[in-house]
Amino acid sequence: MFEICEPESLQSLPVEDGVEGEIVFTGLERECGPLIRWRDKDIIQVTTEPCRCGRPGPRMLFKGRVDDMLLVKGVNVFPNAVRDVINKTSNLTTGNIRIVKSGPGPVVPAPVLVKVEVKAGLPDKKKQGLRVTSTMPSIISFDFGLHSSLSMKASSSY
């Protein structure tokens, strides 16, 4: 059994189309100790449109994690949502972003600086031409030109 709750107050929300909140589980089938109102810390959005596979009932779209959420001018900002906007805007980026916060905690002053990694070898002229059309320009500002300094290596032992 699950419910959708407002993350801060844990007030239960109706399971209807477009509702967004934290998913909370109750599993009464466990014999040892049931999980009662176990917070998963995932933010989901309910959609009631029919699934392509034909399965009935509401579906859940993952939106982000409660721990990742930033609060900017009273607006919840999820890094995954910012990344999705950037990926839809340009194919010249890698999809990697870095959100620069001025301090600890989820509440940050506006505008939040988002550094966006561009594909290797992109000329400076093209970088300067990159723009993200944001519905909230006073909340987020973008800086294109981040270069990754991380390299992935396979581990030889586990």
In summary, what is this structure?
By secondary structure, the chain is mostly beta strands.
General description of the model:
This protein has 158 residues and is mostly beta strands. The chain has two domains: 2-67, no CATH class; 70-146, ANL, C-terminal domain (GMP Synthetase, Chain A, domain 3, 2-Layer Sandwich), CATH 3.30.300. 11% of the residues lie in helices and 39% in strands. It is elongated and about 60 Å long.
Report the top-level CATH class of the largest domain.
Answer: Alpha Beta
| Total E-strand runs | 10
Our count of domains comes out at 2
The low-pLDDT segments are none
Strand order of the largest sheet: 2-1-3-4-5
The N- to C-terminal Cα distance equals 36 Å
Gyration radius, in Å: 20 Å
Strand percentage lies at: 35-45%
Helical/strand content category: mainly beta
Helix % is 10-25%
Q: Which CATH-level-2 architecture of the largest domain?
A: 2-Layer Sandwich
* Average pLDDT over all residues: 78
* Overall shape: elongated
| Largest sheet composition | 5 strands, antiparallel
* Total helical elements: 2
Q: In sequence order, what are the helices and strands, one letter per element?
A: EEEEEEEHEEHE
CATH superfamily of the largest domain: ANL, C-terminal domain
